[in-house]
Amino acid sequence: MTSRNIELILASQSPRRRQLLSDRGFEFTVRAPDDAVERGVCSNCSPEDLVLESAFVKARAIAQDLESGLVLSADTVAECRAEVMGKPVDRDHAEKMLRLMSGQTHQVLTAVCLWHRPSDKHSLHLEQTVLRMDRLDETELQLILDSDNWVGKAGGFGYQDGLDWLHIESGLESNVVGLPVERLDGWITELLESVEPN
Question: What distance in Å separates the CA atoms of residue 152 and residue 175, rounded to the nearest whole number?
Fold first, then answer.
């Protein structure tokens, strides 16, 4: 398959993204960008623009140090009632986000950037999944917070944890976990075809 005949570099420390790629049969290496790379990403833009810019700057940071290969980066946020929810900074922040989403429909947005070296051709893609969260009572909420499963997860939850209070209404489950792997072969093939000489 054309999309598998190039070295793939995952620009992410996320174990969930690594697992999704492995499960899909991709071979790759990991070179995560420094945390400082994401600082300065637009703060007053839409959720869509936020994740797209973040994925772009992460891919660019890794690509500039490579002679060849294909960099894959991604960024995921949850958005509910016009509020963007990335990874919670602490328990109080996680509680605030979960209370906001309780009983509500929200969307999870994942942006993916593919960056080819040495051509520096790149592509950006945005995937959306809509979820509905059951209304959480106080006992359920405190159990979630006590579990620490919210740590490092956009919106303060991980769909992959088998939560029975989250329901996908439209879109890909893998997108909620952090990488819409079902789309990757098509996106990679399209980019590589644009790089190959006619």
Answer: 16
What CATH number does residue 159 fall under? 3.90.950.10
**Is residue 55 within 8 Å of 73, Cβ to Cβ?**
yes
**pLDDT tens per residue across all 198 residues of the chain:** 335 578 999 999 889 899 999 999 999 999 988 876 665 556 678 889 999 999 999 999 999 999 999 999 999 888 998 888 878 999 999 999 999 999 999 999 999 999 999 999 999 999 999 999 999 999 989 988 998 888 888 788 877 776 788 899 999 999 988 999 999 999 999 999 998 764
Q: How many domains does the chain have?
A: 1
Which residues are catalytically annotated? 75
Question: Residue 93: which domain range?
Answer: 2-195
Q: 189, exposed or middle or buried, with CB in 10 Å at 0-12, 13-18, 19+?
A: middle
HSE-CB of 72 using CA atoms within 13 angstroms: 29
Q: Report the alpha-carbon distance of residue 159 to residue 107 in Å, rounded.
A: 13
CA torsion angle 160 166 172 175 (round to 10)? -50
